[in-house]
Each structure stands twice: as C-alpha cells, then as structure tokens.
Structure prediction request, 145 residues.
Amino acid sequence: MASLNKVFMIGNLTRDPELRYVPSGAPVTTFGLAVNRTFMTQHGDKKDEVCFVRIVVFGKQAESCSQYLTKGRPVFVEGRLQYRAWEQDGQKRSTLDIVADRVQFLGAPGGKQGPASEEAPESHKETFTEEAPADNIKPEEDAPF
Prediction:
C-alpha cells in the first residue's frame, strides 16, 4: 500500500525562531506556527479555531529562518509530519512536529502588511528549500529541538 506524508500550512509565527546546532554541527531552527480556521456553526454563528504547530527546519534554511523571521510574521510551510518520543526526568514525552522542506516568507518583514494585500509583492518574498536529513536526529536528553 502506498503512503504519503505531506503537509502544507500558512500561518503566523507564535514566537521568534530558536536556532540551535546538533552535535554534528548541523543548524536546526524551531518556531511555533498558529494556523487559523473560521467556520459556521450549525446555528449560523461564525467561529474561529486556532491550531498551534511546531515547525523544525534544518540546514541553511534554518539559519535563514532564524535571521529573517520574527514573531507574527506570516509564512507558508511545506513539509512532513514527524513523531518523536523521549524520556525526560523519568517521564515519557512525545511530540508531533512538522519538518519543513520549504519555508516561504509572506508579508513584509516585521509582520507588517499592506491594507489591500495579504502578501507582500513578489520582490519581497523569499523562499528557501532544502532537503532535511534522511535519518532522524535524536534530541538531547534534557531538551527537545
């Protein structure tokens, strides 16, 4: 049976990106993404729902995200889901992350957007694409990515 693990999301950063380096020296950046959904209830009321996800970016793309992205900035993320589990202080912990293959910066730097457009002009968009490492990188014992 075939399988597919692909995610596309557009949202706003919930915090500034955090750049770290794994023991091999590879850069890894993580940031939170808030993805909003608006829908109508059965009673005709408009309701907003927010989904918070954690994004993990590797390599040169990680360094670029760390350098240019800030809290509130809208981005498009293309990637895959990755489940990780570890033990910390005797407790089992787990997380479901999105490992980004591509991050496209939307809007103007600093999260400011023009009144007529959801996105910045093409000249202000930046896209970084890079293959993530094929093997899973184990988190440090005391802190996940």
About this structure: Residues 7-129 form a domain with the OB fold (Dihydrolipoamide Acetyltransferase, E2P) fold (CATH 2.40.50.140). Confidence is low (pLDDT under 50) at residues 114-145.
